[in-house]
Design a protein that fits this description.
The complex is a heterodimer.
Chain A lengths: L5 H23 L3 E3 L7 H4 L6 E2 L1 H10 L3 H11 L7 H11 L3 E2 L2 E2 L3 E7 L3 H14 L3 E4 L16 H25 L5 H24 L12 H11 L4 H20 L9 E7 L6 H9 L3 E6 L1 H4 L15 H21 L2 H10 L4 E5 L5 H4 L2 H11 L4 E3 L12 H24 L3
Parallel strand pairs in A: 1-2, 1-5, 5-6, 7-8, 7-9, 9-10
Antiparallel strand pairs in A: 3-4
Chain B lengths: L13 H13 L4 H8 L4 E5 L5 H6 L3 E5 L19 H11 L7 E4 L9 H6 L6 E3 L11 H20 L5 H27 L6 H9 L6 H16 L9 E6 L8 H10 E6 L18 H11 L14 H11 L4 E7 L3 H17 L2 E7 L7 H16 L1
Helix pairs in contact in B: 1-8, 6-11, 7-9, 8-10, 10-14, 12-13
The chains are: A alpha/beta, B alpha/beta.
């Protein structure tokens, strides 16, 4: 029996179910926990049975469903500048519409947890504070203090950071108890951490398996579906089951040499955030040339570091949660700010032909350093790269024709390079 | 201590001193840094908004506030994408062009763009580039301990650069120097608030701004000299409205823009270079000096759009600043492409609308050179207020 394609179908089904659940929660007037993909703390929040809302995912869904423009306009009419994050503005409009969203209805927040992995998370949370008067918990995660300076587990510097995170988690638990009216149950936390362990390890394995030739999935299109499950179902049994099945599917594909539906000619890495306003077309601009994205920094940082495959120690759940969150979110930040060496390794591990940088107007966290990072990578490795800017939400700054010209030229360059290499004397 | 880095003002009358300060603040070659280095000193560049300068000072290093400059980012431009504020690019330009030679660069992730700076600088300069993670959860009971440990990391870093250990007594001496500076700056701002006709915003700005460019002892000497002269000024009191100015916490508006504002309004309080005035009280001299600095940052500090603190909701803090300065209106500015600044405009305008307080909104850029249109709009705003 073939299991090929099962992951994509299951991912889409889980997403529909998730939004149906959110709609039901909104109709019942239940307050949700609003969280972000880099450091969501879902493992902990599920202990208190909060419906989990990822406003970033809501916003990108609005873009994928091609209704982002009306949401952005509404927020801009409210006073928000065209030059700030489109995710924020789409969410502001969603809140102004009482939660109305193309996927269903979004419940109001009972509390929000924002890490410092993105400064906009915190500014965003302040908007809900003012709108609803609910608590915003800022979970401060110290990142690497410089390139290659991530402290080692067990070192004094690491322990100091871990203690800070652990203390905040204890404070967050007290807040969750107060908001939910439920007592913290450490055995339930163990259960959710266990499911998160399966998900983390499954995600790491799926990413590793894509070193296969041909690639088993397209990191830009298929990968985004899997990424949605990593975030939306972290710490849930459905998430653990999904990744058990996905590893099985990808393993079978690797064993049988089954790749993506296109004829793979070029193996690419994607650096940045996808162009959601024309998501399918954006992917086709590459796949039409036989380009397959075998990995991306997006699948790392937007999974909150789940790519590390961190396994919580269920005997010491709180200490281990602090350690896992610190390592994961720090890795997510490193994937955005200090990614050069990781890209060099990725190029080798995944036999990559080219690197595509896609900075976007909306997200300065991801985009500010990409031009410089590209220069650094080019200085280290002789590999073709493409730098093309657009946005993840705002179609006004997406020029498909210009993008196509640049992408076509990139592939022509790749072809010429391969031709020259083949013609060169041995 | 090396020779004075900024001796030009000494012995001059007040107006001439202000001119010299203005020339220094506008000099994109930053001569004080060069003079310090010529004397054998080392320099720690720290990006906006706040840095515990006392620690670098205690090591005998010059803490230099990296706040951009009105320069063309000819070398820096290609290191960044589009849609960025100017200060990010112009600050790197200072490094790449060699205008500001540093020995260490420290940045704090104040915003999504700035948090990339350590990575970008680190790939392009030979000296160390580090991130200081100031707490974004100052409400945690563990934040002061965490920050104290972070400051200890900065102490080790600065000690390595200076080639010697920084003792607690070194730190206490530096805290003493900076406490005096804080007292003098509070006096400067009190004068601006109480008798604004004696101290236009552009003059107050240059007198304060020099502090980020010279050893703090020199700044103290300058302020000690200038304050009595300012207080003894006999300038006429004009019929101008009292306003507060918001939006200068990171990228700095051009001086000519501040002069244009000063022609229409008395700016009685502002957040210009708020990092130099972040600690609003003296840092205690007793006990562990790093702990004292950490607790001051958390419990006795100003506010800005780039620090989240449950005790400092942005709308309430704006109204408090307005009330404490007995201000009639507000000028709300945001640097172009400055995400936190632009987001704060929504908060601020709604807070002011709620109180029925009039405000003037504008974007700016450190490199802008034309102010005519803005000045006309501002004059119209003021006339509307006066004749309403």
């Amino acid at each position: 029996m073939t299991i090929v394609g099962r992951g994509n179908e299951a991912g889409a089904r889980l997403f529909r179910q998730w939004f149906e659940g959110l709609t039901a929660a909104a109709d019942e007037g239940r307050g949700a926990a609003y969280v972000f993909v880099m450091g969501s703390l879902c493992e902990l929040l599920r202990v208190f049975d909060f419906p989990i809302v990822f406003p970033e995912i809501n916003s990108l869904q609005a873009a994928v469903r091609r209704v982002a423009a009306e949401y952005l306009n509404e927020a801009e009419n409210y006073g928000y500048s065209p030059d700030i994050c489109g995710y924020v503005k789409a969410d502001v409009a969603t809140q102004l519409r009482g939660g109305a969203h193309p996927m269903g209805k979004i419940p109001k927040p009972a509390l929000a947890v924002a890490t410092n992995a993105c400064n906009t998370y915190i500014k965003w949370g302040e908007i809900w504070e003012r709108m609803y008067g609910m608590p915003l918990f800022t979970l401060d995660i110290p990142g690497s203090r410089g390139a290659g300076l991530a402290s080692s587990r067990g070192s004094d510097d690491f322990e100091r950071d871990r203690r800070y995170v652990a203390a905040q988690i204890t404070e967050l638990i007290a807040l969750c108890e107060r908001v939910s009216g439920r007592k913290f149950d450490i055995d339930r936390l163990r259960q959710h951490l266990g499911w998160a362990n399966e998900l983390n390890q499954g995600w790491q394995r799926v990413l590793e398996l894509n070193r296969s030739t041909p690639a088993l999935f397209n990191a830009l299109s298929d990968g985004t579906i899997y990424l949605g499950v990593v975030n939306g179902f972290r710490g849930a049994p459905e998430g653990a089951a999904f990744f058990r099945d996905l590893v099985e599917e990808m393993t079978q594909k690797a064993e049988q040499g089954i790749g993506t539906p296109i004829d793979e000619k070029w193996r690419l890495i994607f650096v940045g955030v996808p162009c959601y306003p024309i998501f399918r077309r954006f992917s086709e601009l590459f796949s039409d040339w036989g380009g397959v994205f075998v990995n991306s920094t997006y699948l790392w940082f937007a999974s909150g570091g789940a790519n590390l495959g961190f396994c919580y120690d269920l005997q010491h759940p709180l200490d281990s949660l602090a350690e896992g969150v610190l390592l994961g979110v720090r890795d997510a930040m490193d994937s955005m700010f200090f990614q050069t060496q990781a890209l060099v390794r990725m190029i080798d591990d995944y036999a990559v032909d080219g690197v595509v940088y896609h900075p976007i107007k909306s997200c300065r966290t991801v985009s500010t350093g990409l031009a410089d990072s590209r220069r650094a990578l080019m200085a280290q490795r002789d590999i073709p790269s493409l730098f093309v800017e657009s946005d993840m939400m705002d179609k006004r700054v997406v020029s498909e024709a210009q993008m196509k010209n640049r992408i076509d030229a990139f592939f022509e360059g790749l072809a010429a390079r391969r031709h020259q290499a083949a013609a060169a004397p041995a | 201590m090396t020779a004075a880095t900024f001796p030009e003002w000494r012995g001059l009358p007040l107006d001439e001193i202000v001119v010299r300060c203005r020339e220094l603040v506008e000099d994109a070659d930053f001569p004080t840094v060069r003079r310090w280095r010529d004397g054998g000193g080392k320099v720690v560049g720290h990006f906006q908004v706040y840095f515990p300068e006392e620690i670098a000072h205690a090591a005998g290093l010059l803490p230099f506030k990296v706040r951009g400059a009105p320069v063309e980012p000819t070398q820096a431009e290609s290191h960044f994408g589009s849609y960025l504020c100017s200060i990010i690019k112009s600050s790197l330009e200072l490094a790449l062009s060699g205008r500001v030679p540093l020995d260490l660069f420290v940045t704090h992730p104040i915003c999504d763009a700035a948090r990339n700076l350590a990575g970008v600088w680190g790939r392009n300069v030979s000296y160390p580039c580090r991130i200081l993670y100031l707490p974004q959860n100052p409400n945690s009971g563990f934040a002061a301990q965490y920050l104290r440990d972070e400051y200890d990391r900065v102490r080790r870093l600065c000690g390595e650069l200076a080639g010697r250990d920084i003792t607690d007594d070194d730190l206490r001496h530096s805290i003493d120097v900076f406490n005096e500076n804080r007292t003098l700056l509070r006096r400067l701002y009190a004068l601006k608030r109480e008798r604004p006709w004696l101290l236009p915003v552009d003059e107050a700005y240059v007198l304060m701004s020099v502090g980020g460019l010279v050893p703090r002892e020199e700044h103290n000497e300058l302020l000690r000299t200038v304050l009595p002269l300012l207080e003894a000024r006999t300038l006429p009191r004009r019929d101008q409205i009292r306003v507060i100015l918001e939006g200068g916490f990171c990228e700095q508006p051009p001086l000519d823009l501040l002069r244009a504002i000063a022609r229409s309004c008395y700016v009685v309080d502002d957040d210009l270079l708020i990092g130099l005035r972040w600690l609003v009280e003296d840092v205690p001299q007793s006990g562990d000096p790093l702990q004292a600095l950490a607790e001051s940052y958390i419990d006795r500090s100003a506010h800005s759009p780039v620090q989240h603190d449950l005790r400092k909701p942005k709308d309430r803090m704006l109204l408090e600043r307005l009330d404490q300065a007995d201000s009639q209106a507000a000028i709300l500015m945001a640097a172009k492409m400055c995400e936190p600044g632009l987001e704060e405009l929504v908060v601020h305008t709604r807070a002011l609308d709620g109180r029925g307080i009039r405000y003037f909104v504008s974007e700016f850029e450190e490199n802008m050179t034309s102010f005519d249109s803005l000045e006309i709009q501002l004059e119209t705003f003021v006339e509307n207020l006066v004749f309403d």
